Amino acid sequence: MTRVAVLGTGVTCTALSVPLADNGHDVRLVGTHLDREIIDRIKTSSVHPGLDEELPVSVKAYQLEEASQAFAGAEIVLSGVNSFGVRWAGELLAGLLPDRALVIAIAKGLEAGADGELRILTDLLTESWSASQRASHSVSAIAGPMIAGEVAARRDTCVVFAGRDQAALDRLASAFRTDAYRVWTSTDLVGCEVCAALKNCYALGVGLAHGVLEAPDASGRPDRMHNYEAALFAQGAAEMRHMAALLGGDPETAGWLPGVGDMYVTSIGGRNVQVGRLLGAGARFEDASARLGHPTLEGAAAIREIGEALPKLARRGMVNPEDFPLLRHLYEVIALDLPLDIPWRSFFGGEPGHDRATAHAPGTRD
Amino acid sequence: MTRVAVLGTGVTCTALSVPLADNGHDVRLVGTHLDREIIDRIKTSSVHPGLDEELPVSVKAYQLEEASQAFAGAEIVLSGVNSFGVRWAGELLAGLLPDRALVIAIAKGLEAGADGELRILTDLLTESWSASQRASHSVSAIAGPMIAGEVAARRDTCVVFAGRDQAALDRLASAFRTDAYRVWTSTDLVGCEVCAALKNCYALGVGLAHGVLEAPDASGRPDRMHNYEAALFAQGAAEMRHMAALLGGDPETAGWLPGVGDMYVTSIGGRNVQVGRLLGAGARFEDASARLGHPTLEGAAAIREIGEALPKLARRGMVNPEDFPLLRHLYEVIALDLPLDIPWRSFFGGEPGHDRATAHAPGTRD
Lengths: 366, 366
What we know:
The structure is a homodimer. Chain A is of the alpha/beta class. Chain A starts with a strand and ends in a 31-residue tail after the last helix. Chain A has an eight-stranded mixed sheet with strand order 3-2-1-4-5-8-9-10, with helices on both faces. In chain A, helix 10 (189-212) packs antiparallel against helix 11 and helix 11 runs antiparallel to helix 12. Chain A is built from 16 helices and ten strands.
């Protein structure tokens, strides 16, 4: 039996308590200051209001002021806060981490520095840690297609634990792995983190297809735009590959669970797709977000972060100004309120017969 | 104006007459012996019964006995028959091909020889041609996400013309390319043809997820199996990549429009997915096919062809016996009537902690 402390009670990290408890581990969920009511519900009824599954009775819930009690003796720490809380979580964990605990995180995003340099979130998490904490707690991350409710319902799920320390990955994987929650490992932490962040951006892009036919000036024919959304999906896959390589990761990571697998599941539904649909129908981003109740949109946040970084990276010669045409246009639509006008001709290295050089397979540019 | 002769009146090749006619070309659709009524309908009303769009009036239809009239002076020949008619089409075209006509084909599949060697369909098409015909008519193929009705409705569509002769590809692409039908080119004919065939197989696999919850012994909970289908999609993408490399193509072709782009659109709907759904719910393949009215199933045909070839290729040392676990299981379900039991542990090079070696990123095995 391993003691596992979980910081955060979002649906994803809470759902992960199910395979952990099924494996007989001692799971302790610690709510943030935003999670008081969720913790109270779990304490009294083992029910998380956002998950349609009762949690195993062995899972214990703790309010934030009980965190040191929950973390005492934990051998595994799961950082379950989303991309907006990573720094906060890192500072809190700096004071809570038991010696030699393994750390794994689920936030999805990239952060841009002043010169456009893009950082993965596991590196932000450890920013406030001491050198010895950083040396003794390798931080891994979870990637791959993982809808929380399905994990909690013990539906077949295949994921990837990514990190720089293979031994840590193996120990983490065997703590979480069940006959329903299946875990592969990858030492391409950068590639996996890039894919995890970008899949939200491109799922928002795929969602545009659902909305274009609802625009006031659309022809009104009932046809869906499957060819349109498939082309966006393919361009997203190519840009993921390129970004993984740009940040020093393995471009092939885009080709399996962490990349196209996760992008597939994210493109089928969810908040980022819903925002895309409203944008496709002509809404401005702020209006679309308001109509959905201003949900947490890691995809939109990553589009802003990367969209602002790309011109800086181009000025430094690290990318070409015409690279990442889909991501740049998503930035124009979301951050600059420009009208939707998919730059098809710039996709896949440039459609032959137009301005851009006639590169064929996008992989050749990596 | 270019004269284009089209053999076959399936929805896909008929839809392609729209961008061709929009570009001012002289398009001549020639029906096979199965297409008499379709040709009569188009002759009298410009309507194809399977396409919800009127064809441009400049598109002319011909019965099979009028084929030599239709083909006279054609500079481009589009072979529109499906995988089951490729040899027949090749023999017919041998007698009809005008000098120097460019040929492009749309059939999706692979054919296995006696020793398991897998051949792409463009090579079957030319089997009965003379050496000089083969030398003077480079055969190209169309790959990528392309639902016929959307092409006919002039919805944005991005495709790839693949072939061995770049000059031929450029001429073909500029004959078909419009502001809605966008064409890239690739000289990786083998990779594109492999992806075009395999995407049907794996879309059938993705369809399984839709059916599993409808099985009599399923828990009946209304959850969809998105994680399940996304894992099948990702394994399909990895196997596509492997098969492209095995046959001498470029594995990176699996990463954009011809691979994951086309697999995405095929996984959203269509006959192969419907068969998968019935299999997922427990039907035997023959029953599933009968319930759908025995449709043309290029995916099921390719699964049989490749599934029979793989053990032969393994005996010859060209693949490992445990390679292509998803395709081999689809073969077991479709051809051997074995019960569905997804071999998750064999996916992505083998889940660590089980029988198979702990390979991590599938790309490392290419």
